Amino acid sequence: MTRPEDLAGFLADRATRWQVPENCAFVEEIPKTTVGKFDKKPVRARLRAVELTVQRLVRESQG
Hints:
By secondary structure, this protein is mainly α.
């Protein structure tokens, strides 16, 4: 399973600081609509129902 620090380290060299989210929740599968787009409604419902654990990304300081 991916850890927040792994994701933050991966994104550090590939994305600008403002593009990296402050928090994340890892899911086994991303639900999609019938046309193949990400369906955010079920994910938001799981967040409201506290079925997902939101974790803070550990960002490396930029000097």
